[in-house]
Amino acid sequence: MLKYIIRRLLVMVPVVLGVTVVISTLIYLSPGNPAQIALGQNANPEAVARLEQQMGLNKPPHLRYVDWLTQALQGNLGRSLETGTPVTDLIVERLPATLELAFASLAIMLVIALPLGVVSAVRQYSWVDNASMLFAIFWLSMPSFWLALILLLLFAVHWDFFPISGRAGALLSVTALSYLVLPAIANGARRAGLLTRMMRSSMLEILNKDYIRTAKGKGIGQRSVIYSHGMRNAMIPIVTLLGLQVPSLISSSVIVEVVFAWPGMGRLLVDAVLRRDYPVVQGVTLMYAVIVIVANLLVDIAYSYLDPQISYD
Amino acid sequence: MSDLQEGRSGRPNRSDESTTQSPDEETQLPSRRRKVAGRLIRNRLALLGSGIVLALVLTALFAPYIAPYDPVEQDYAALEQPPSLEHPFGTDTLGRDVFSRVVFGAKYAVFLGLVIVGFEMLLGVTLGLVAGYYGGMVESVIMRVVDVALSIPGVVLALAIAGMLGGGLIPLVIAISLVGWRGFTRLVRGDVKGVMEEEYIDAAKGAGVSDARLIVQHILPNVASSIIVYATLTIPTVILWAAGLSFLGMGVSPPTPEWGALIANGRGEIDDAWWISTFPGLAIMVTVIGFNVLGDGLRDALDPRQSEL
Amino acid sequence: MSTQERTTDTDGERPDDPIVRVHELEKHFPIKGGILQRTVGHVRAVDGVSFDIQTGETLGLVGESGCGKSTLGRTMARLEEATSGSVEFDGRDVTTASKRELKAIRRNVQMIFQDPASSLNPRMTVSQIITEPMRSLTDWSKSKREDRLYQLIEEVGLSKAHLSRAPHEFSGGQQQRVAIARALSVNPQFVIADEPTSALDVSVQADILNLLKDLQDEYDLTYLFISHDLSVVRHISDRVMVMYLGEVAEIAPTERLFDAPKHPYTRALLSSIPRASAGAMDDRIVLEGTVPSPEDPPDGCRFHPRCQEYIGEVCERTDPEVEPVDGRADHVCACHHY
Amino acid sequence: MTDPLLAIDDLHVHFHTEEGTVEALDGVDLEVYGDEVVGVIGESGCGKTVTMLSVMGLLQSPPAEVVGGSIRYDGRDLLTCSESELNEIRGEEISMIYQDPMTSLNPVLTVGRQVSEVLLAHRDISKRDARERSVEMLDACGLADPERLMDEYPHSLSGGMRQRVMIAMALVTEPNLLIADEPTTALDVTIQAQVMEVLRELRSDHEVSIVFITHDLPLVSEIADRIAVMYAGTVAETCSVERLFDRPLHPYTRKLTESIPKLDQPATRLPSIDGTVPSLVDPPDGCRFASRCPQFIGEECRSVTPALTDVSGTGRHEVACHLYTDVSEASPPWPVDDEDRTAQQPTAETDDGGRR
Q1: What interface predicted TM-score (ipTM) does this complex get?
Q2: Taking CB atoms and an 8 Å limit, are B204 and C157 in contact across chains?
Q3: How many distinct structural domains can be found in chain A?
Q4: Domain that holds residue A186
Q5: Please, what is the average pLDDT of chain B?
Q6: pTM of the shown model
Q7: What is chain C's alpha carbon radius of gyration, rounded to the nearest angstrom?
Q8: Mean predicted confidence (pLDDT) in C301-318
Q9: CA pair distance B260, B254, nearest whole angstrom
Q10: Is C263 left (phi over 0), alpha (psi -120 to 50) or beta?
Q11: How many CA atoms does the CB half-sphere of B265 hold within 13 Å?
Q12: Number of domains within chain B
């Protein structure tokens, strides 16, 4: 098992490196002179030239990349052109909010989707199945930013159940929780719809397997057949699919953060892109990639626990 | 009679199965195409989906004839009017008719959906075919690139690309296309590997068929249906993405009546004029539902094995 | 009928006229493992196999799953690249042939596969399927190809009306007929049939076996007939080769192999076949255990851990040579008993 | 004669598919008596598995629908049992082993869990006792090191071992009836021989009736007392193994036995059956074999479905064919050269010809 994790970690290295190359290339190809952006439009050309020198902008791109990478490996992702704050500090400040939102959405997805999917599969073509499939189609067709606006309109503005926007620190109080509810729903709803359908089809597939017939033939009762024999097998593909959903969960959280003024990395990124604050864009994108890669690693480990057929070496 | 048959020493010119097959029985076997069409029609949801998609395309084509007003014409006499007979979806902060803007938005949705998915397919399917067919180093390299691309969340990458290229329609198309191809590559590569396991591929190799012909004649037709299904189900995702990026101000710029931009436009007024954002959102939702259920129906009809995406 | 050949075969006086010579053929598949997914071992699917096939004969190849019989067939048709050794067809080495040479060889070496449903491209019509080898391997004109197509479709017992249909509209037996027509379209001399009837019902199997025999007589075909079913092999073959774990256990003319099997594995295999007779089970040899993994075959004789006639350490230490038994050149066996 | 343990009477099963309603079973009659091995033989699609899945109540419905008939086991009609009543019978009184051992065991549960589960469901027994009993059963099925095997997952077992586990699982509750659905088809011959050996031994140790479904006539003749031949959803003939080879009465049975390549016979041209199995969607009236039958005798074959009738006077040889109107010792219209046939098909006249 340890060997397996080590191998997975080793495989991660080239992928992370690849990500840094892609991001650096994008930044390099972007128009605009970072030194000019940092100093403002009306800056003295000499000062701009001096800053360029200082920032290493006149070096060839591969050397700039190597410089950046060397610094990045030491935890230094540069400074924001806008405020001069170290990018690492900005990320550390915003990361908890982003993770909090991600986990809350994930929890909502799982709590709604798994039971609904299982019931739909077990009672295929019943009214429960039809209703939950319509429910799923409805949510998965909803643009998350629009849902966010509608939720805001109804539950925050119109009925005043929840605060309109922002975040009240870490999740320790009812107040803090109340800030989280709407963003988490907006972010999780679409994927809950998707997951319901996946769970249903996965369970349906398993229920058609020979070993389910064997189990039924043993006369152990429907409950045991579904839970002991069906569920665990059905979860194996679901865990994989959950892993594949992580990037899109993050994607929608970027937009949801903007709508609810949730102080996570997504808002940071959007602001940075709009202001062409390249070091921040670079740093945040890298951080997002790392989150995805780590999530995939966790999924693989969970997967190998669920499926005894996976060998660890 | 039986003894005669057994004693027969000649070649069995009479086929075991074909002799008793009357012409009537033969015509009973429905062709594959008819079967697919039949399954689509029986699926009522899929029918609804095709209806929605058809309506969308017609709206996009005939937008100028359907819309009662010019979508960009401002009317200071009618600012932020709630829905009425005159303005079924109300008017926005500049007095533009929301209904007309939503109708014209269909043009962008259809255009973006088709063009972007077209580009994604072109890039993704080609790479997937190459990776799956040749295997080895070529495959490793392509799949590592896919791994890297998949590690960056789509909107984040698209934001970075769109940010680099600046706003506008073309950068939007490029940004989303560069993000979406990887799904096609994964799918096609997997399918190609599956098809390569089939004995008819060995048979074709044994028949001396060239690589190019093998790919075009034997592999592509057998992976085509899953590509079609995936493409149909990708269109709504692309429409959502395009709207999302426009909403963030990274896509189509303000006066243009793109649905995401329309929602962004009404965002500030959500408490006074809910209709400005609500109707474009509904339009997106209906469109996405349409493509989704059509795609589901197509999957059931064409490719029942393909699991939920 | 092939009775003429059969009688000469059993006398062991068949003229030595091999059309195929396989020499020390090996096919190993790498196994990946460890942290860096390096090659940590090999599945020795085919491990040093030598034999000849005479012009016009049917060589039956039997063995249990995993013994390498299919891999051997596929390597001989160059659907797999050989690890070492050679397969000479008509004096030309198939394993090292260039693309152009391979085309010339393939005109004469064709293959029929196990699963008729999978061996026909579902998106092509029967006529496309049958003409494909002619298009790629010959320079025949369109009209010549069509003539051949019409001739073949009748010969395999189908009709012209079937040509425009798709494979899924046919039953398994009919699909296998299409596959046979495809293999024979370019007038090959040698056909490798890999379990051609194992996916079919017995009554349909009888039809296909009869058809293969008829076509052999008509076109002077040479067959390598791979099967796990000894009854079928006995029915169709002139000589039989038994494989165990990637190696040759025994080769002998059919009658002789079934009447006087030498290798303990052959004997166990023969006695395992169910037959509808009373005494059949009294002398049944039931082997212990299962076939070991070809990743890590036993030292010495590969059969020794399961052998009912284990004679001592020599079996564990030395891999027996394939040698003639009873002084007959046409009956060879790899066992320390002989 | 005592009452049969299992009596299937005029069973009709339909499958509702896109192509139409498939009349998979069209009046199947079959009886299994105590301590008897019945072989059910037929080609793919003839309905042998569907019949047995109906007995187990394991047909997927939809698309399957039992439209008529009855299945009486020990006095109860299984078709009218509720799911929970069925669960008391399945695994406890009737067990089944399936064709493909690779897919019939749950990949994520240990062997021990899967075997002892049956006991825990049907007996008031502690987990430890269930485990002990399971180990004994695995051992009885010829599996080496059963203790260790209990904690293994199926994927580390070979096909032959898995099928033995399946057998252990089926017999651990000592059922009265075992249904074996092509239990050796997926296995190699030498492994098949091992599994058959296990089945034969267990049969002599435990008093259990077996229904052995297969397409392999020689194989089933090794173990069965009586054979039922099925064709296109109907039972064509039932008789003892010896009679089947000596004196098959149904033209289909005869054709089937002849088309098998035989080891002990010199290679000649194999007789085959002309034509193809009729489509079971809207099948022809009358005898379903009529269109292929070499003994076709006229309109009656096309219009009247022949009933399975006793033709031996003893109830031990039944045939569904219009050729036989005389119910006492019918003789087939083809030459029966008993001596010659016995030479080619040496079958035992004694009782232990089928089993040992």
Answers
A1: 0.82
A2: no
A3: 2
A4: 101-306
A5: 80
A6: 0.84
A7: 21
A8: 86
A9: 10
A10: beta
A11: 28
A12: 1
